[in-house]
Write a structure and sequence with these properties.
This is ABC transporter permease. It comes from Stygiobacter electus. Keywords: Membrane, Transmembrane, Transmembrane helix. The chain is mostly helical. The chain is about 70% helix and about 5% strand. The chain has twelve helices and two strands; from the N terminus they run H-H-H-H-H-H-H-H-E-E-H-H-H-H. Strand 1 (about 150) and strand 2 form a beta hairpin. The longest helix has about 35 residues, at about 110-145. It starts with a helix and ends in a 5-residue tail after the last helix.
C-alpha cells in the first residue's frame, strides 16, 4: 500500500495543475501582507475605532497573528477550488490517459487502488494546508512579530498574544479535515467520469448549491442544514470564540468525518463494479 501511495503522490506532483494552488496562495498571501504593511496605520484605526471611545487600548494590534487570521478568513472560501483541481483529476486523469487497464493488470486490487488514491489526495491536502500555515502564519510572524488579536463576532473579543497561537493551530487542523471532505467529494465525482473538468465543476456546484439551500429561510431546509457538510466547513472559526464550544467543534468534525467515510465507501463500491474498458 505504501508503494501505491508513493506512486500516486508522484503522479500528483508531476502534473503542473498541482502547483496552481501553491502559486495562487503564495501570490495572494504576499499581496495581502504587502498591502497590510503599507496601510497598517489605517488598518489599526479602522479596527479599533469602535473601541477607542470606550476603552484605553495598549498593545500591538497589527502583528503576524492578525495578518494570518485575516488571510485565513479571506482565502478559505477559495481553497476548495484549489483542492478540487487535484482531486478531480485523480481518477479522471487515469481514464483520460487510458491507463486503467495497464495499472489494474498488475497484481493490485481495485480496493487498494481506490484506497491509495484517497490517501494520496489526503496527503496532498495536508501538505497544501501546511504550506498555507508556513506562508501565512510563520511568514507573517517573522515579518510583523506577535501581539494581540481582535475578534469581531457577536461580541468584541481581544485575545492576549500568548492566547492566539494555539487557536490558530487548532483552526488550521480543523481546516485540514474540512478540505479533506472537499477532496473526498471531488474524488467521488472523479471516479465516475473520464474528464477532470466534470468533477471540478460538479464539486463546486454541490458546494454552492448546499450553501444556497442553507441560506433559504424554509423550515424543512433549515432542519436539514445541520447535516449539510457545507454547514461545518468553516467551523474552524469557533476557535476564536470565548468560551470555545468544543462540543460544537466535535459534532461538526464527526459529521465531516462521516461524509469522508461515506464518500470513500461509495467510490469504492462504484469502482469495484466498474468495467474497465481502457
Amino acid at each position: 500500500m505504501i508503494t501505491l501511495i508513493n506512486i500516486e503522490l508522484q503522479k500528483i506532483f508531476k502534473k503542473w495543475r498541482t502547483y496552481i494552488g501553491f502559486i495562487a496562495v503564495f501570490v495572494m498571501t504576499t499581496i495581502v501582507q504587502i498591502a497590510l504593511y503599507l496601510t497598517q496605520d489605517d488598518f489599526i484605526r479602522s479596527t479599533t475605532r469602535a473601541l477607542n471611545d470606550s476603552f484605553f487600548l495598549q498593545g500591538n494590534f497589527f502583528n503576524g497573528y492578525v495578518v494570518a487570521y485575516l488571510i485565513l478568513n479571506a482565502m478559505f472560501i477559495h481553497i476548495p477550488f484549489l483542492i478540487v483541481l487535484v482531486g478531480g483529476d485523480l481518477f479522471a486523469g487515469e481514464a483520460t490517459a487510458g491507463t486503467y487497464r495497464m495499472v489494474l493488470t498488475r497484481p493490485i486490487s481495485k480496493f487498494n487502488f481506490v484506497t491509495s488514491k484517497f490517501l494520496a489526495g489526503f496527503i496532498y491536502t495536508f501538505i497544501f494546508i501546511l504550506f498555507i500555515v508556513l506562508i501565512s502564519l510563520l511568514g507573517s510572524v517573522l515579518f510583523f512579530g506577535t501581539g494581540e488579536l481582535v475578534s469581531l463576532k457577536n461580541k468584541i473579543i481581544i485575545f492576549a498574544s500568548n492566547d492566539v497561537l494555539w487557536r490558530l493551530i487548532g483552526a488550521y487542523i480543523y481546516a485540514i479535515l474540512s478540505m479533506m471532505t472537499v477532496m473526498a467529494l471531488s474524488i467521488f465525482f472523479s471516479s465516475m467520469v473520464s474528464n477532470a473538468i466534470g468533477p471540478i465543476v460538479s464539486t463546486m456546484a454541490v458546494i454552492i448549491v448546499f450553501i444556497i439551500l442553507s441560506a433559504i429561510p424554509i423550515e424543512v431546509l433549515q432542519n436539514l442544514r445541520p447535516y449539510f457538510f457545507t454547514s461545518h466547513l468553516s467551523q474552524w472559526n469557533e476557535f476564536f470564540n470565548d468560551p470555545i464550544d468544543y462540543n460544537e467543534i466535535k459534532n461538526s468534525a464527526i459529521i465531516l468525518f462521516a461524509h469522508i467515510i461515506a464518500l470513500y465507501g461509495l467510490t469504492t463500491f462504484i469502482f469495484l463494479k466498474k468495467d474497465i474498458l481502457s
